[in-house]
Write a structure and sequence with these properties.
With 471 residues, the chain is of the alpha+beta class. It contains 12 helices and 10 strands. The protein has helices at residues 14-21, 27-46, 98-111, 215-221, 227-261, 268-288, 293-300, 304-309, 312-331, 338-352, 356-362, 365-383, and strands at 50-63, 66-75, 88-90, 114-118, 128-137, 140-153, 175-181, 195-209, 386-388, 462-469. The longest helix has 35 residues, at 227-261.
Length: 471
């Protein structure tokens, strides 16, 4: 890296560089080389559990013989939790009836429906139609208001109010006008609240034809020979899901109690890290739906700081529950066998459609084992808890009759985030729904994260670790 007169770059002898700049010029590179491994070794030797936070690093001495440094890290707090055996919480009653099974069969039947063209009647609500349309406002065609051979399900409310209703009753090859008024909050400001006329032509009418529910249907859509066998299998899966949902609700209620029972001086860094995890998880869920966090924040008029802060209560609860369960693991001497580890790897393999070897390559085994044993602790709490049926909901008390008064209804004004797109003007603007985070999700951290020992982290309880390294 050095430019020394008389030598090509990088080719100057070390002694000449040391003479020009001093021996210390090489110390920084040497420290960067030895420091990370030395810190990892010191943390392991100390036996402390490191929390991601800022590390205070001071060089005590450095020379050609080695480096003495002091690192102040944030560590997990000492935790006390009592009375976690015999907790009481409501657990939903698992019940699957014939109506639930029939509803599932109906969904399957709907998925197998096919569209059939008809010509012997006018369009009805629920039909799928193929249309041309072109919109005019104040006699002028407007941008985005034209569509050719567009598919529209009548009654789906895809287009602006009143549009689809005026297609009902029209026949194939009929040309007609559709008169509408754009909503006040419409995304295109020039059209908002204004009347418009759409010149339309109807080309095709299609109806959904459902397959008949019989044994042949069961054979076509499943591995079963009869409809009754298919229904029995559906009932079994519904019961399994209902059981899992009931357990999840029961565990969530128990986790709330565990969080309240934790006694610990928790570093703020643990809460901050959990808030970051909440934001990342939410962003990942949005991306799986083809959205992004930036788009969500724009639609809801929220900035990232406020959104992140809105996750604080949830993050604090998750940290406390995790600490409680980790302490229960120690109290009850819970462990995970190699056989149990292999079973969990197989589950991940089936879930993600990857070979077990690939799963092992991307998962940090130590963290994965910790997550599994923490889940075991949650099951321990659940299995030793007392479940009660949810209390019956009381019917609302009847209000005493009052003299009839003329009620003045205040109009509700909603603010819709305006979206500027080139999509069809006849369609309703997409309004971003504000999503609130659920309180207790999973109490275990994401197993698939690979984590290195020394990362960033804040400090409440700090521990000083000193290590001498010679290179």
């Amino acid at each position: 890296k050095m430019n020394v007169p008389g030598f090509r770059k990088g080719k100057a002898p070390r002694k000449i560089i040391e003479k020009m700049y001093g021996k210390e010029i090489f110390y920084e590179d040497a420290m960067n080389e030895v420091y990370p491994d030395a810190l990892d070794a010191a943390i392991k030797e100390s036996g402390y559990e490191f929390v991601e936070d800022k590390i205070d690093f001071d060089v005590l001495s450095v020379d050609e013989n080695g480096l003495d440094f002091k690192a102040v890290i944030t560590v997990k707090p000492e935790v006390t939790i009592k009375d976690y055996v015999g907790l009481k919480a409501e657990r939903p009653v698992v019940s699957v009836n014939d109506e639930d099974v029939d509803a599932e069969v109906k969904k399957l039947q709907d998925r197998q429906a096919r569209l059939v063209s008809i010509e012997d009647r006018a369009a009805q609500d629920g039909d799928t139609v193929i249309i041309d349309y072109e919109g005019f406002s104040e006699g002028e065609a407007f941008e985005g208001g034209k569509g050719e051979k567009q598919t529209l399900v009548l009654g789906s409310n895809t287009f602006i109010p009143g549009f689809e209703d005026q297609i009902v009753g029209k026949k194939i090859d009929e040309e007609f006008d559709v008169n509408v008024t754009f909503p006040e909050e419409y995304h295109a400001e020039k059209l908002a609240g204004k009347p418009a006329v759409f010149k339309c032509k109807l080309y095709e009418i299609k109806v959904r034809e459902l397959p008949e529910l019989n044994d042949d249907f069961a054979k076509d859509v499943s591995e079963f020979d009869t409809l009754e066998e298919l229904k029995a299998d559906m009932r079994h899966h519904l019961e399994e899901h209902a059981e899992a949902d009931a357990n999840a609700a029961f565990e969530t209620a128990l986790a709330e109690q565990l969080a309240e029972k934790v006694e610990a001086d928790i570093p703020n860094a643990m809460f901050e890290n959990a808030m970051d995890d909440c934001v990342r998880d939410f962003d990942n869920r949005l991306q799986s739906q083809g959205l992004s966090l930036d788009m969500y924040l724009q639609y809801t008029g929220t900035d990232i700081k406020d959104f992140r802060e809105s996750n604080r209560a949830q993050a604090e609860k998750q940290v406390k529950v995790r600490l409680a369960l980790e302490q229960i693991v120690k109290n009850e001497n819970l462990t995970v066998s190699d056989e149990e580890m292999e079973e969990e790897y197989k589950k991940f393999s089936e879930q993600y459609g990857m070979p077990v070897d690939q799963i092992k390559a991307v998962i940090n085994e130590d963290h994965f084992r910790k997550d599994i044993v923490v889940e075991k602790a949650m099951h321990f709490v659940r299995d030793n808890a007392k479940a009660s049926k949810p209390a019956a909901k009381k019917a609302p008390a009847k209000k005493a009759e009052e003299p009839a008064k003329k009620a003045t209804t205040a109009k509700k004004t909603t603010t819709t985030a305006k979206k500027t797109t080139s999509s069809t003007a006849a369609k309703k603007p997409a309004t971003a729904k504000k999503t609130t985070s659920t309180t207790a999700k999973k109490t275990t951290s994401t197993a698939a994260k690979k984590t290195t020992t020394a990362k960033k982290t804040t400090t409440t309880k700090k521990t000083t670790t000193t290590k001498k390294t010679t290179k």
